[in-house]
Amino acid sequence: MFSKIKNLFIVLVLFLVITQFLRPEKNEASYTSITTFEEQASVTPEIQSILQNQCYDCHSNTTRYPWFMEVSPISHWMAYHIEEGKEHFNVSKWEVYTDKQKDHKLEEVIEKLEEKAMPLESYGWIHGEISSTDAGKLIAWAKDTRAKAKEEPIVKDSLQVEETNVVATDSLTTNDVQ
Questions:
Q1: E strands, the chain, where?
Q2: Hey, where are the domains in the chain?
Q3: Can you tell me the distance from the alpha carbon of 11 to that of 105, in angstroms, rounded to the nearest whole number?
Q4: For the purposes of burial, counting CB atoms within 10 Å of the CB of 96, is it exposed (0-12), middle (13-18) or buried (19 or more)?
Q5: Global pTM?
Q6: Which terminus of the chain faces fewer neighbouring Cβ atoms within 10 Å, N or C?
């Protein structure tokens, strides 16, 4: 009996050691991937602070990793949650959403905050829970952004290209012979 427990313990330790070398890819794009969202959705500095502290780690291409994220299997568990969060809403891809999708994403933000389903409870263990005041501010901001978008689209045509007139001239010169 004791040898079975000992063997199981050895296998478990070997598994944990091996998984330390099999790390998931990190979610570390530059912050500029978020700026389009912040500009187009009229994110105020106060809302930006809340989003940075409570949302962007799982809902953007930029994650701040605590030291213990270097330890497997925690790193794999967190990578799974980040990928799942980005599948539902990724602010770094804001510009590829249609106006209808953007409205729906903001509607989901409101619903999840009102239901207290976001941020995930496990995220709160590490980073602290979102206060009801901050959740209320995010809800008000999302509602306001949706209302403004109904008046005018959130995104202006980002593919506008200024037309330029190019004039071709003959670069050859002639010498007048007298």
A1: none
A2: 26-151
A3: 45
A4: exposed
A5: 0.68
A6: C
